[in-house]
UniProtKB/TrEMBL annotation:
InterPro entries: DNA/RNA_pol_sf (IPR043502), DNA_pol_Y-fam_lit_finger_sf (IPR036775), DNA_pol_Y-fam_little_finger (IPR017961), DNA_polymerase-Y (IPR050116), DNApol_IV (IPR022880), Rev_trsase/Diguanyl_cyclase (IPR043128), UmuC (IPR001126). It catalyses: DNA(n) + a 2'-deoxyribonucleoside 5'-triphosphate = DNA(n+1) + diphosphate. It comes from the Bacteria. Belongs to the DNA polymerase type-Y family. NCBIfam families: PRK02406.1. Its main location: cytoplasm. This is DNA polymerase IV.
Length: 383
């Protein structure tokens, strides 16, 4: 069996710190706002219930802007700019102090919301993640829309998503239609969509390399694709030149590295029409077995074994029940999971019709670890 073609998303929150601030100061929506003040720039609540905000023009100090709303960016203000310099461009813009605790809170919320839909996540910092969508059976556009909706429901915030065959292109794409954008590209779109972009859009071509490329007359990614390999090698050395030659063609094989260990992996399905355990027995059984098989495949692909198998049922009246069963030894085997889930099913009422059925594997350990533990156990057995 061939693995499915890679489908990688990059998701980046829009004007992240500023957007979190607007959640608590919604009266600032639509205005130029920059984040980067000190505590004494905290808004003041007035007796009449309105708030008084600090303005850039009143700022004195050496502070730097972390980010700005898109309205402020339209005035030329942005990340990493000195606050006093920004004050010259946008004197009336509102200045707010940073609140990292709040940003970390919303960072956790949006990542958890995405993980509910697509658990193979590589954390790339406070406001961005890569997501491996290769094993999700849904077209890219509705999937991206569903992820954006989940993020918005969990946080009230918008984000932008790029979906392509690899991390390199997805990182570029999540930025192309910001804010609130979705950009989906295949390798065949690289000449049309990627080549016109400046070389610095490639993650890994920094200011220094950009400057050297400019001197060589290479401004766009397309210029880079046309460039003479020997010349590049002469100026950048072999390995960086080889890398430049690949990235300008949209080639990038880096895997999505999921660092955080999942607590559980589950598969569930909502039926097109409610099903009854007795009358629709054959159909239900088929769906149930398929879920167990897919769960086993999820475990195997991610190299986990599970000790606790559980089920979730949602009845036609939206009431849900769960049951689980702990096994004598961890497994990633479809038939074992199916048997355990079947045991759980015997312990719930099947009188009412069902809307949804799900299977969950928890108490996970890395398969290699479990095998090693098993071996050392056997080693200790008296023969
Ligand atoms: P970014 O994702 O680069 O920017 P952003 O989310 O503010 O805006 P965009 O819509 O273009 O993605 O960075 C995420 C957060 O990291 C940003 O809200 C503030 C912080 N940050 C800094 O503190 N300093 C910086 O120089 C940058 C670039 C970001
Ligand atoms: Mg962002
Ligand atoms: Mg970011």
């Amino acid at each position: 069996m061939n693995p499915p073609p890679r489908r990688i998303a990059h998701l980046d929150m829009d004007a992240f710190y500023a957007s979190v601030e607007l959640l608590r100061y919604p009266d600032l929506r639509g205005q130029p706002v920059v984040i980067g003040g000190r505590r004494d720039q905290q808004p003041v609540q007035l007796a009449d219930g309105t708030r008084q905000y600090s303005r850039l023009r009143d700022y004195v100090g050496r502070g730097v802007i972390t980010t700005a709303t898109y309205e402020a960016r339209a005035l030329g203000v942005g990340s990493a700019m000195g606050v006093m310099k920004a004050a010259q461009l946008a004197p009336d813009a509102v200045l707010l102090p940073v609140d990292f605790d709040a940003y970390r809170h919303y960072s956790r919320l949006f990542k958890a919301a995405v993980a509910e839909i697509a658990p193979e996540i590589e954390d790339r910092g406070i406001d961005e993640i890569y997501i491996d969508l290769s094993h999700i059976d849904e077209a890219s556009l509705p999937l991206a829309q569903r992820i954006k909706r989940a993020v918005h429901e969990a946080t009230g915030l918008s984000c932008s998503i790029g979906i392509t065959p690899n991390k390199l292109l997805s990182k570029i794409c999540s930025d192309l239609e910001k804010p609130d954008g979705i950009t989906i590209l295949g390798l065949e779109d690289v000449p049309l969509r990627i080549w016109p972009l400046p070389v610095r859009k490639i993650n890994g071509i920094g200011p220094k390399a950009t400057e050297k490329l400019t001197v060589l007359g290479i401004h766009t990614i397309g210029d880079l694709a046309q460039a003479d390999a020997a010349t590049l090698q002469e100026h950048f050395g072999r390995s960086y030149a080889t890398w430049l030659g690949e990235v300008c063609r949209g080639i990038d094989e880096r895997p999505v590295v999921t660092s955080s260990e999942p607590k559980s992996i589950s598969r569930e399905t909502t039926f097109e029409r409610d099903l009854h355990a007795r009358h629709d027995r054959a159909k239900l059984s088929e769906i149930f077995t398929a879920l167990c098989t897919r769960l086993a495949e999820d475990l195997q692909r991610r190299a986990y074994v599970s000790r606790t198998i559980g089920i979730k049922l949602r009845y036609e009246d939206f009431r849900s029940v769960t049951r689980d069963l702990t096994l004598p030894s961890p497994t990633a085997d479809a038939a074992t999971i199916r048997r355990a889930a079947g045991e759980c099913l015997r312990r719930v009422s099947l009188e009412k019709k069902l809307r949804l059925i799900g299977v969950r594997a928890s108490a996970l350990t890395a398969a290699a670890e479990a095998a090693a533990a098993n071996e050392s156990l056997q080693g200790e057995l008296p023969l």
